[in-house]
Specification:
The complex is a heterodimer of chains A (about 120) and B (about 110).
Chain A (H helix, E strand, L loop, with lengths): L3 E4 L2 E5 L4 E7 L7 E6 L6 E6 L5 E4 L2 E6 L4 E6 L8 E7 L11 E2 L3 E6 L1
Parallel strand pairs in A: 2-11
Antiparallel strand pairs in A: 1-3, 3-8, 4-5, 4-9, 6-7, 7-8, 9-10, 9-11
Chain B lengths: L3 E4 L2 E4 L5 E7 L5 E8 L3 E8 L6 E2 L6 E5 L5 E5 L8 E8 L6 E3 L3 E5 L1
Parallel strand pairs in B: 2-11
Antiparallel strand pairs in B: 1-3, 3-8, 4-5, 4-9, 5-6, 7-8, 9-10, 9-11
Classes of the chains: A mainly beta (about 120), B mainly beta (about 110).
């Protein structure tokens, strides 16, 4: 049972273009939605995160758009650079669960930004 | 500042062998997690420990056991390795009241 569905599985974008990765969730108890970035041979690292009380969060070239009614959220990478080439994971969690809350991850998107 | 340290980084096992994957964090975090990463499957939670002395099953616990040895260390044991357990294993930790999880570098395990 995949609680967080992520698409596309892979993405190729030209340098300077916009990369868009989409995720959908089912459990309405989720209240925290982070995106993690993973480079080859490394562990995932937090990139940006959003709570459902806002519809958008921007940090530099990275933006999360959140649609609570549709239970969907997406990552937009503006002016994509070759250094952005990595695997991106969306995730969801229930922070109200306190210490026992778990991070549930999507299946990942392999992004390649061509120079 | 080491963060989350996993050992070993690589391991090859024969079917039926046992081994323990070690994880230690130096950030005084309460919660620790074990995930496995497989192509097309994302990161799936195997076991987690909300605090020292407690452990709970995640999405894919079968074939694994864990021990929260102390606040710093959380180990994952494969009692009888199977080829289906070939994967990259990640340990992560999270502080009390914090939202960000920190991951180790991973252990690449191959079972032949």
């Amino acid at each position: 049972q995949q609680q967080v569905k992520q698409s596309p599985q892979s993405l190729i974008v030209q340098k300077g273009g916009i990369s868009i990765i989409n995720c959908a969730y089912e459990n309405t108890a989720f209240d925290y939605f982070p995106w993690y970035q993973q480079f080859p041979g490394k562990g995932p690292a937090l990139l940006i995160a959003i709570r459902p009380d806002v519809s958008e969060k921007k940090e530099g070239r990275f933006t999360i758009s959140f649609n609570k009614s549709a239970k969907q959220f997406s990552l937009h990478i503006m002016d994509s650079q070759p250094g952005d080439s990595a695997t991106y994971f969306c995730a969801a969690s229930n922070l109200r669960g306190g210490a026992t809350n778990k991070l549930i991850f999507g299946t990942g998107t392999l992004l390649a930004v061509q120079p | 500042n080491a963060g989350v340290t996993q050992t070993p980084k690589f391991q090859v096992l024969k079917t039926g062998q046992s081994m323990t994957l070690q994880c230690a964090q130096d950030m005084n975090h309460n919660s620790m997690y074990w995930y496995r990463q497989d192509p097309g499957m994302g990161l799936r939670l195997i076991y987690y420990s909300a605090s020292e002395g407690t452990t709970d099953k995640g999405e894919v616990p079968n074939g694994y056991n864990v021990s929260r040895l102390n606040k710093r260390e959380f180990s994952l044991r494969l009692e009888s390795a199977a080829p289906s357990q070939t994967s990259v294993y990640f340990c992560a930790s999270r502080g009390q009241g914090k939202v960000e999880a920190f991951f180790g570098q991973g252990t690449r395990l191959t079972v032949v």
